[in-house]
């Protein structure tokens, strides 16, 4: 996550120095706490929050839980993780819905914090969960705020109640109250009221917001805060809390390149939980806020649970089973490949999903260089093919590949590379689907390949070797051929049952000496 990028790097560097120490002294702990304090202050976290945070970390790091730990460095990381979860609000807090619909949600915040866009994101999020939200345009001061909400509502697929044109015309309190009544009549179970913001905290804005709250009696008042405005966010949050009060916080613009201290400060300073976070410009870039998962992201420990949830929401389980069957029966085509890619794109930004993996901070450069448009180019190539060509790549001769390249705006080389990669991937996936071990290009056969891999070749080689001697010496060749015919090892003594040194041989299994051998033995003994 871009907002916490610098803080994550600083903390990761601090913990790296601890891993070389078998036991932590008081000086080691003090040095670590000092570096954590600097990293948090550089990230624009509130000074009071930093003091409280570092005091708790130092106290626990000097306690018995670290001294008795097998790996003190990992224990300190766990302590920092626990304290981060605490200042981010502890447990996840969900929206509180009214017992008698509609549930009224009022959005408040400064102008430019992203309230209007966030209203559409929240509405779309609730619609996915089975609710029927409606947006109410009560921001009648900002130029074209009503039009913007109507556009956002259309993109989210939810209705917008906007009886007034805005641009300074109309009474926001009356619109908000009428919106709740309209939602009740139209049987919408959620009403989201978009209120006006100001460039700064002033008495007029506070009075208007307080009047809307009194008129609509909302179940939730969400304070939308820009994660990029730093320390001023905490001051603004305190002013809103005193003037209007709010039940929860929504962080916007978490994908920005700001230092992110507001996110780590606002929950601790106001005592109100962070409920949602906006992580991008698209309406789908919106997620419930989990303090434990956010702490893991900051410490570069990954966020596997969110990654799994995004994948589950995007991928169709029945479709996945059909694809698995096609792989096992060699029926997987470019048509199926295209469908899988489109599902992957539907899960969201691939770069963001890769960033949720543990240790992604160490791949920052690779993630920055990752071009998501490559998937769009691949889709263009496949979509430029005919249905028959997608089902059977063997039809793709030179003229067809040239036509496909021109249709996709790519080169023939790009088409050739795609077909080659697809065929290799299909072959590997078919091997996996049948329970085998795939052979990765550039590597030898993997262990456990069984008779499918080198086993057959080795057996054939052994049989070929056992078919007859290839020695250039006629006498030696005759001796070895005789040994092969008798089942004895070539160039050795007759085969005996049992293990080395005669151990484990069955009684009576030893070979019977010949008369010639007995004569030689008697001569050797001087008889």
From TrEMBL:
<feature type="region of interest" description="Disordered">
    <location>
        <begin position="443"/>
        <end position="515"/>
    </location>
</feature>
<feature type="binding site">
    <location>
        <begin position="194"/>
        <end position="198"/>
    </location>
    <ligand>
        <name>GTP</name>
    </ligand>
</feature>
<keyword id="KW-0733">Signal recognition particle</keyword>
<keyword id="KW-0378">Hydrolase</keyword>
<dbReference type="InterPro" id="IPR004780">
    <property type="entry name" value="SRP"/>
</dbReference>
<dbReference type="InterPro" id="IPR013822">
    <property type="entry name" value="Signal_recog_particl_SRP54_hlx"/>
</dbReference>
<protein>
    <recommendedName>
        <fullName>Signal recognition particle protein</fullName>
        <ecNumber>3.6.5.4</ecNumber>
    </recommendedName>
</protein>
<dbReference type="InterPro" id="IPR027417">
    <property type="entry name" value="P-loop_NTPase"/>
</dbReference>
<feature type="binding site">
    <location>
        <begin position="109"/>
        <end position="116"/>
    </location>
    <ligand>
        <name>GTP</name>
    </ligand>
</feature>
<comment type="function">
    <text>Involved in targeting and insertion of nascent membrane proteins into the cytoplasmic membrane. Binds to the hydrophobic signal sequence of the ribosome-nascent chain (RNC) as it emerges from the ribosomes. The SRP-RNC complex is then targeted to the cytoplasmic membrane where it interacts with the SRP receptor FtsY.</text>
</comment>
<dbReference type="InterPro" id="IPR022941">
    <property type="entry name" value="SRP54"/>
</dbReference>
<comment type="subunit">
    <text>Part of the signal recognition particle protein translocation system, which is composed of SRP and FtsY.</text>
</comment>
<dbReference type="Pfam" id="PF00448">
    <property type="entry name" value="SRP54"/>
</dbReference>
<dbReference type="InterPro" id="IPR036891">
    <property type="entry name" value="Signal_recog_part_SRP54_M_sf"/>
</dbReference>
<feature type="domain" description="SRP54-type proteins GTP-binding">
    <location>
        <begin position="273"/>
        <end position="286"/>
    </location>
</feature>
<dbReference type="InterPro" id="IPR003593">
    <property type="entry name" value="AAA+_ATPase"/>
</dbReference>
<dbReference type="Pfam" id="PF02978">
    <property type="entry name" value="SRP_SPB"/>
</dbReference>
<keyword id="KW-0547">Nucleotide-binding</keyword>
<dbReference type="InterPro" id="IPR042101">
    <property type="entry name" value="SRP54_N_sf"/>
</dbReference>
<keyword id="KW-0694">RNA-binding</keyword>
<dbReference type="Pfam" id="PF02881">
    <property type="entry name" value="SRP54_N"/>
</dbReference>
<keyword id="KW-0963">Cytoplasm</keyword>
<keyword id="KW-0687">Ribonucleoprotein</keyword>
<comment type="similarity">
    <text>Belongs to the GTP-binding SRP family. SRP54 subfamily.</text>
</comment>
<keyword id="KW-0342">GTP-binding</keyword>
<dbReference type="InterPro" id="IPR000897">
    <property type="entry name" value="SRP54_GTPase_dom"/>
</dbReference>
<feature type="compositionally biased region" description="Basic residues">
    <location>
        <begin position="454"/>
        <end position="467"/>
    </location>
</feature>
<feature type="binding site">
    <location>
        <begin position="252"/>
        <end position="255"/>
    </location>
    <ligand>
        <name>GTP</name>
    </ligand>
</feature>
<dbReference type="InterPro" id="IPR004125">
    <property type="entry name" value="Signal_recog_particle_SRP54_M"/>
</dbReference>
